[in-house]
Write a structure and sequence with these properties.
The protein has 328 residues and is of the alpha+beta class. It folds into 2 domains: 232 residues, Rhopdopsin 7-helix transmembrane proteins (Up-down Bundle); 78 residues, Pdz3 Domain (Roll), CATH 2.30.42.10. Helix 1 runs antiparallel to helix 4, helix 4 runs parallel beside helix 11 and helix 10 runs antiparallel to helix 11.
Length: 328
């Protein structure tokens, strides 16, 4: 077994407690904010109007093109205006273009109340945080350290979870995006060293390329905040593209692991637990999407199965450590 010392307990646990408290506090704060019930995209087209919301009552429709918000041209507004987080009772006047004619709509914001999406996101991200810390604090192996890094990055994202789909132009949300990208980078790193290190995991070129990508993203986030929203309108969500690339590479690494691991080692090495977690995540993503397409209700809770993946990964790296040390 590796002789590395596990992560020191006190500091990671303290960080975990602080991040959890920030996430819960943000969730409670989010429920007290105003909610218009509409979203418009970087092209200033309203993508979605919530039924029976303030926006619907004001007459806004999906497909409307936003011209101004409170007399300010939409192209000069930060991304916050696209979700328009404000206090309940406040009124904002939107002028939209509909069928070639300008239409004014006064949106009186209502109390948002519980936000199921933010609640679910926080649960999943905190599951990564605490399952990662559990593995990193109890197992002295490279996969456990990688999972702990995944967890800490997810915890930073969880501290801002109520702002997902919210205050995109703020420093908090940019830090959150960087944290979520780091989470996917560390997840890729995990599957490059689990259950056995792959040849590419020791490549200096790969390591340098990873640092370059992360450094580029941080620089881009800083520049995006300085010139916001002009850069975003041109490039879109660069962080999302990096995350997608990392997920694709992670799936490739996992596929390679499944193909090259002898059948007799699948469970002993912990790979079986990892595959169970991935299967649960696939169900959590695919079933609600299919249900929405078929207009089936009551399936949104399945998204919480995403929290099964970090638990399964923690069990996997712990079993891998016992296997590596000669245990069963």
């Amino acid at each position: 077994m590796a002789t590395d010392t596990p992560l020191h307990h006190t500091l990671p646990l303290a960080v975990g407690v602080v991040l959890t408290a920030l996430g819960v506090a943000g969730l409670l704060r989010d429920g007290r904010q105003g909610w218009g019930g509409y979203i418009y995209n970087p092209q200033r087209i309203i993508d979605w109007v919530e039924p029976r919301s303030a926006a619907a009552a004001a007459g806004l429709r999906q497909g409307d093109s936003v011209i101004t918000v409170d007399a300010t041209p939409a192209q000069d507004l930060p991304m916050q205006s696209r979700w328009a987080t404000t206090r309940p009772g406040e009124t904002h006047r939107l002028v939209v273009m509909r069928e070639g004619l300008p239409v004014a709509a006064d949106v009186v914001y209502r109390p948002r109340g519980p936000n199921p999406f933010a609640q679910g996101a926080l649960v999943v991200l905190l599951a990564y945080l605490w399952c990662g810390l559990w593995a990193g604090l109890t197992v002295p192996t490279a996969p456990a350290r990688a999972l702990a890094s995944v967890g800490l990055a997810a915890g930073v994202g969880g501290a801002a979870a109520p702002n997902i789909g919210g205050i995109w132009n703020g420093v908090v949300s940019h830090v959150q995006m960087a944290a979520l990208v780091l989470m996917t980078v560390f997840l890729l790193r995990l599957f490059l060293v689990f259950p056995k290190p792959k040849r590419v995991s020791g490549s200096r070129v790969v390591a340098v390329a990873t640092y370059v990508v992360v450094a580029f993203l941080v620089a881009f986030q800083v520049l995006e905040m300085i010139v916001h929203p002009r850069l975003y309108l041109v490039t879109g969500n660069v962080g999302g593209l990096v995350m997608l690339a990392c997920f694709v590479l992670t799936l490739a690494a996992l596929t390679h692991t499944v193909v090259t691991t002898p059948r007799g080692e699948v469970w002993k090495s912990g790979l079986g637990w990892a595959l169970i977690g991935v299967a649960a995540a696939v169900v959590a993503i695919v079933v609600p999407v299919v249900g929405t397409a078929l207009r089936l209700e009551g399936l949104a809770w399945l998204e919480l199965l995403l929290a099964a993946l970090p638990l399964a990964l923690a069990l996997a790296v712990r079993k891998q450590a016992r296997w590596q040390g000669g245990g069963s």
